[in-house]
Amino acid sequence: MMFYTFIIIIMHPLLHRLRGLALMCLAMLVTTCTSHSTQMNGLGLLPEMDIKHKLTCDVCVGTVEVMRGMLSANKSEAQLEVYALKICDQFKIQKPPVCAGFITTFKDIAIKILKDDFLTASYTCGYIGACPLPPAPPGINITFSKPKPPHVPPVMPSPTAPKRYILHLTDIHYDPLYQVGAPVFCGEPLCCRGNETSSEAGGSSESESSPTILAGEFGNSDSVCDLSPSMLDSFFAQLENIVPKPDIILWTGDNPPHDIWAETEQNVLDINAFMASRLHAIFPLTPVFPSLGNHEGFPVNTFAFPPSDLMYTQYAKDWAQWLPPSEIVTFLYGGYYARDVPGTRNLRVISLNMNFCDYLNPYVLMYNKTPDPGGMVQWLIQELQDAEDNHMHVYIIGHIAPGQSVCTSTWAYSMAQITDRFEDTIVGQFYGHSHTDEFEVFYEVNVTNPRPVGVAYVGPSVTTYGGVNPSYRMYETDQDTGYMLDITKTWADIDASNVAGHAQWQEGLSLKSMFGMK
Question: Is residue 32 within 8 Å of 212, Cβ to Cβ?
Fold first, then answer.
């Protein structure tokens, strides 16, 4: 049986280099080994942060089993924390303050995992990347209520046909604690915050012989530093003067910084509220369609299956100017919604909570036999069937793209089937998370010679994290059909901005111009 195929193409050489992001991958932190990653070793680790030289599979399994024994013996949480800190210090996984922060932040969900008899020590250690990963559950073949209608090939619209412009923003990761002049290499997962330079533990660190590199006003081209206040202000100023003005805005998540060992739930919510207010101030009349990134959860990646995540209530309040009450119902339940685009007669946006596909979501780990968390897959099929019946076109948005390795194969297979079945209804999918400029191609499923049936557009990040230049995309689409006509990326040169003393934003070539297309 042929499963599905995704092709990921990097359109610009802005590689997402997360140097030495060795977060704490011990028993108290089995819930997350990375705050953000798309190129992984197994499931939680970047090649650059492979911890197998620090924490072998045997040691990981032994640690988990010891801590489970401690729980069985009714040891206190404080005793568990002391043990985890000793392991962290022995293997020098991170600086002690970082380890302590991780343990405090993740201990509640970690204890849930340790108490789950279904999750063996080897399975848990496979999840964090220290052991071979057990086989994923098989994909589920979806039975649709109606057969797929005959495919109608799209017709190229007239060059003079009305256009619709779509602004895509993703992965802003603003760091309000960014300090100009702080070390770029600090030995912690996030730098440029006044952290002392150190190479004693995992994270970003410079060699002993290299000179100290200090944070520039607008970021650094080789660092694990998030978006600085000056670059954020220039980004919003750029949006205020954007040409052409967008008709709709797709905002696909991840607003807080990568300080996941030190964050609080209130900080995560405050960053989102701040971003929402700034966007609304710049575009008061423009429809904005937000979606939840993995950093919108607290702790990071943590999204309980419906209906138990109370953070949705606050996000719904922050986004109330864009989501009418009728759409908020499903968002409050599971963080997903559908909304017809105002002022159009045949265009709908469906926003998915792609954290239900995220391997790093501990609830996906604990309930991996649940093929459809929150009933979102069936709800999506119903929305698409309604759109097909009413001759509408649909944009699907979310944070994590189905073809990214962090997305479970079960979920990816479901999305491949859905994209195939509703080929003529879904005219575009839009995601983020990777921090790079990419797209994915969906193919027919379960056929001998599959043909392409859909495209997912993966937008570049606004953050500088990983040494990338802040970027966003503008899509030119046909107003009647919603089909993609052209893509233009705008970006700021970090190095040039620091030299000039002000942000150097520039518009890159459109895809049509780049490839000589008409």
Answer: no
